[in-house]
Amino acid sequence: MKVLVIYSHSYQETSHAGKVILEVFKAQPDFEVRNIEELYPQCSPIDIALEQERLVAADLIIFHHPIFWFSMPAGLKHYMDEVFQYGFAYGSTGGKLRGKKFIHSYTTGSGAATFAGELGEILPAALKGSAAFCGMDYLKAFPLYGQLALTNPNVPAEAKAHAERIVEYVHSL
Questions:
Q1: Per residue in 62-115, pLDDT tens?
Q2: Mean pLDDT, residues 1-12 taken together
Q3: Cα–Cα dist 67/40, whole Å
Q4: DSSP the chain
Q5: Buried/exposed code over 1-19 (b: 16+ C-beta within 10 A; e: otherwise)
Q6: What whole-number distance in Å separates Cα of residue 33 and Cα of residue 137?
Q7: Residue 86's beta-bridge partner residues?
Q8: Is residue 151 scored above 90 in pLDDT?
Q9: β-strands 60-66, 137-144: how paired?
Q10: Cα dihedral 88→76→53→98 (10° resolution)
């Protein structure tokens, strides 16, 4: 199974969890990692045709990002606005992502208790809805809470375990 990871983080140089998660993903021979901020710094023009080609070639798509104000980073939103176009991802001549498997992986600085109840339901909602709108099969969300390195000395170990759980899940499909 060919897996495409779309990673976005506005402050990736300070992301301890993100670095570890990407290392695990990059070590997998069947995973391709696309780091949006490295490929398209400061929301520079996106190679739409190339990104659409990568998405079409994948069997499973993983979006991984931190949660910023109950949503995704600006770079990921920009990527979706540009790449998930009418006629490609949806619409009468779209549907190129229909039937693709989709996993949503995200990290938060605050602990799990912060997101109990309704707040926890909000976090995956936008991407769950977007996947459904494009006809993708939203498999599940993989949240990783409490990843603020200033308060959690276990970030590297927790991030590694998180990524390994996703890899194991993907290989079980």
A1: 999 998 888 899 999 999 999 999 999 999 899 999 999 999 999 998 888 888
A2: 93
A3: 20
A4: --EEEEE--TTGGG-HHHHHHHHHHHTSTTEEEEEHHHHSGGGPPP-HHHHHHHHHH-SEEEEEEE-BTTB--HHHHHHHHHHS-BTTTBSTT--TTTT-EEEEEEE-SS-GGGGTTHHHHHTTHHHHHHHHHTT-EEEEEEEE----TTT-TTHHHHHHHHHHHHHHHHHH-
A5: eebbbbbbbbebeebbbbe
A6: 20
A7: 90
A8: no
A9: unpaired
A10: -50
| Cα 73 from Cα 67, distance rounded (Å) | 7
Number of other residues whose CB lies within 10 A of the CB of residue 146? 18
The distance of Cα 32 from the centroid of its chain, to the nearest Å, equals: 12
**Can you read off the two tokens belonging to residue 148?**
């603020």
Q: Is the pLDDT of residue 150 over 80?
A: no
CA pseudo-torsion sign 25, 76, 47, 55? positive
User: HSE on the CB side for 121, CA within 13 Å?
Assistant: 2
Nearest alpha-carbon partner for 7 in 109, 79, 88, 102:
79
Whole-number pLDDT of residue 21:
97
